[in-house]
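Sync notes, pocket subgroup
Present: LS, DG
LS reminded everyone that the earlier model was apo-only. Rerun requested with zinc ion included. Inputs:
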Amino acid sequence: LTTKVDCSLFGSRFDCVCGLCHEIEPAEVVFSEAAFAEAPALARRRGAGRKAAALMDVRTKAAAGDEAVAGLNEAGFEVAEILVPDGPGGSWPVCDDKTKMDLERRIGPVDWILSVGSGTINDLGKWLSADRGISYISFATAASMNGYTSANTAATVEGLKVMIHSRAAAAVVSHPRVLAEAPAEMTSAGLGDVLAKTISNTDWRLNHLLWGDYFCPQAAGLVAEIEPLYLENPEGLRARDPGAIGALFSGLLLTGAAMTMAGTSAPASGAEHLISHCLDMMSSLDGRPHDLHGRQVGVGTVLAADLYRRVLNLESPDFGRPAPTPDFSVWGPLAGIAAREFGGKAGRLEDARSRLSKGATWDNLRETLTGGLHGPDKLRDCLIRAGAAASAADIGCDRERLLEALIRAWSIRARVTVMDLAWLTGVLPGAGREITENWA
Ligand SMILES: [Zn+2]
Ligand SMILES: [Zn+2]
């Protein structure tokens, strides 16, 4: 079984066909059976000082924290374990301002931070280290999301979900066994987050085709080579096969890198992410629970793939109808944020309408976009065979709620996606019910 992950991209710097010079962070990724043994040398190579604080929760302490800290301390570092408390109601820790302030008080003067965990712990390490202007190294304990290699922190500040521009990790390190033993729902979340790439890339290209927005083919194509490893063998993820999980981990590291290359989240976040964000916003309004980000994104990916199929099947759609008007009032206290995020999109949609109805624009768009997509059947099949979340019920919501998210999602961001095409061509809102009933 191969657990080999090609880490050579990280730390490289090159002039790209897109016209930019890319510098790929983090500078180093170590994914190996020797991860624990190599960690001290890795830290020294990254210029990490002697004193560090290691963030972990009770689960990641047992999975990797104790072993990683013992190894570093034996090698002459002075690393203190800082246990991050679980969230309200015994949930997993949360990355919010309150938790951060509490940790800020508990972490003494240190040279760097080691985060041992996945989404939340990694984000806390990223956030705290950026604030102090020190570096952090991430010990990844689950192939659950693409934030290990991104420079953004997803945090909740004063009750609101925000993206904080921080700094990428100095290095990411992980062990195949640790990832394979992570809770199955976390691995399934990682699969959802990486499958999103098919939609987000296409949405990104759509904006490039319509308006000449920046697009990097290199960043868009980063996961192409390894994608078949998890797309064709999802059973490997269910069986915790280290090769399959290693491929998924690579896919996640590379999608994180694609965002850094592009300088935006566009290469890894399109219509499917908006559906998940909508579900999160609905939860923050009515208090009903939501599922892990990647699990919701996976379901959103299948719905968005069906939208693309329906839209791109139209030979000569009528772009005569006016662009849709958002109703922010459905967001209650969040209406102001939704309106701010929507920004000047109304003008862009009017412009899209006129561009799409001229000359060969629609034909070119159809031809170019179709090539990069997977059908909803293939994506859903992959999620099911992997034992991941594939239906509304799997992510703890009913089809009505998912339909509502599908209908509202276009209006919570300025980014133009397949959902806007669906509204402009009249596929939405009409087909929404059929789409959620067929696929979720
Ligand atoms: Zn480029
Ligand atoms: Zn994501």
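DG: Residues 16, 18, 20, 22, 216, 218-219, 261 surround zinc ion (ligand 1) (CB under 6 Å).
LS: Strands lie at 13-15, 21-23, 28-31, 51-56, 78-83, 112-117, 135-140, 152-157, 160-165, 171-174.
Action: DG to write up.
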